[in-house]
Amino acid sequence: MRKSSLRRASAGLAAATSLALALTACGGTTKEDVKSEGASAATGGKADPNAELKKGLTVGFLPKQVNNPYFTSADKGGEAALKELGSSYKEVGPSSATDTAGQVSYVNTLTQQQVDAMAVSAQDPGALCTALKQAMKNGIKVVTYDSDTTPDCRNAFVSQASADDLGRTEVQLMAKQIGYKGEIAILSAAQTATNQNIWIDIMKQELKDPKYKDIKLVKVAYGDDDAQKSFQQTQGLLQEYPNLKGIISPTTVGIKAAAQYLSGSQYKGKVKLTGLGTPNDMRKYVKNGTVEAFELWDPSKLGELAARTAVALSSGQITGKEGETFKAGSMGEYTIGKDGVISLGKPTVFDAKNIDQFNF
Ligand code: RAM
Fold first, then answer.
1. What residues does 88 pair with on adjacent strands?
2. Which 8-state DSSP code applies to residue 276?
3. Quick one: which atom of ligand 1 is closest to the CA of 190?
4. Domain housing 34
5. Which stretches make up the Periplasmic binding protein domain (predicted)?
6. CATH of the domain at 190
């Protein structure tokens, strides 16, 4: 763990400890409740697949970053599902994707407000753990979505697509576009982001296949899901590596900023760009020849599935154990996989042929 993360984590620990004392002292939760909830927090006891879905619950959404259109779309999907299910939605969260301490205090706020469940996209795999465990001890169900913590810090993780699929397909898309030859770079989000870091690890594994022997990954840069920083990092990559053939940006903020930079530069159409973006952000860059193909899932479906998972957990239909199944309304039936992971499905690849069929 980096020093700053350590500092933040211990600040989080202190906050969560005093919160626990405050909660037990004010009588809302007794020590016995805390103990028994704590023992079953990770597994949540026994699932009853026939349990009725509860109404009147409150589910708090805590994205990595509130002013990111990707999360606006994801959380709207959560809000609509909760409305349909007769429960309430609220959203809190930091405006910067590198404000881990802020995320910790939002977890504590939701715990203090005694929400029934929270859906969290983690900026850092470990930093939120103490606060999330405290929430679970207080009977709150914790679902991570988009970006996970370690499995012991939540009941279930709603994943956008398998990390393996995402990491490998991004390399495959890039390799095709550059004819399996040349230097490439990655423009990521925050250096601590769980989701991006897993995808990057898988990209590196995929690149070990002999068919990519003429491709060289020269650098991983971090734009922190900040448009301006991502734009500058793209510019920096091209200055530092004049032979660069392509950039993979596994973040909606990064790919948009990189497309904007390339589109107005001499590199337009020559330096290839792929990764994860929304069709609405990328449409103009596909149409003007800056970008050939990129991919994503539907963020609103991810938010919807996170909300439905939170309600199923709070109703006791599932506990987060591998093999449990539940019906996610019109989305159909989902089965919980290894380590409590629920996968939304396969990503969609967008290009000039299909991009106009999508509006998100
Ligand atoms: C950004 C965020 C988010 C990621 C998408 C692809 O909006 O980093 O976590 O899933 O990109």
1. 58
2. B
3. 8
4. 2-160+299-344
5. 59-317
6. 3.40.50.2300
